[in-house]
Amino acid sequence: MNTKIKPFLFLPLLVLSSCASKQDLVVVADDVRKLKTESETIKTQSAGSYSDVQQVRDEVSKLQGSMAEATHKNAESFGRLGMEDSLLVHKVDDLETRLQKIEHFLGFDNKEKSAAVMPPNVDSAEGAKAPKLLDDAALLNEGLERLGKSSFAAARESFSALLKDYPKSTLVDKAQFEIAECFFGEKWYEKAILEYQVVIAKYTKSKKRPAALYKQALSFEKIGDEVNAKARFKTLINVYPASPEAALARKKTH
Q: Which CATH class is domain 93-117+134-203?
């Protein structure tokens, strides 16, 4: 073969090779554009997802704050209930001890003992007989008479005797209420609160219950406990809306 012709034989191969390289570059460039587009799409989606996640985090933080606030409020409410329960139940023994000490200091217990040992002014035949016990109605009337004279300790003695000797009497709720009234009259409001609570909790069908709720609320007011005082007024209005005491309570809550 002619050596002058040989170079022209490789020329088509070079042209084809050059064309193939350009096509590859076009494909690669197109792939790069696609990758860039996908990258931008991913970035946009990532930004949106991050925004959504951040929003969820903010909502969770708000919920946690609301839960913390609710927990704090519940703790305060339970704290007040605990204090009330402690006042109405757990301090009974302490108040009873204080009562006994005060009565001892004032000499009431000695007077009661002296009255118990004094012989009746009767002849020997009648003196041998046991003293006649008063019935429940007589004890209640005796207590009310003594209470009217501000003889609080003596009045309590009569009411307490009714509760002890006639536990099934229809007058026990009234006797219990009047015991509370004795302490209220003495301005011993903590003890009055406890005794009114007995009427409220034990004698749920008593006609004295509205008055017990009202006077207990007043007792709370007297010791500066406005929270429990308002709670008792509201309970009275809700449970006994037509009672005279409820009308008085409405004036207190307005």
A: mainly alpha
Total residue length of the chain = 254
What radius of gyration do the chain's Cα atoms show? 46
The Cα–Cα gap between 196 and 235 comes to 14
Q: What pLDDT is attached to residue 96?
A: 57
Domain boundaries, the chain: 93-117+134-203, 207-254
Here the tokens at position 21 are 């390289």
How many CA atoms within 13 Å lie on the side-chain side of 139?
26
Q: What is the DSSP letter of 2?
A: -
Percent of the chain with pLDDT over 70: 53
Mean pLDDT across 53-67: 69
Handedness of CA 240, 242, 246, 251 (dihedral sign): positive
Question: Is pLDDT at 195 greater than 50 in this prediction?
Answer: yes
pTM of the model: 0.52
Mean pLDDT of all residues in 69-86: 55
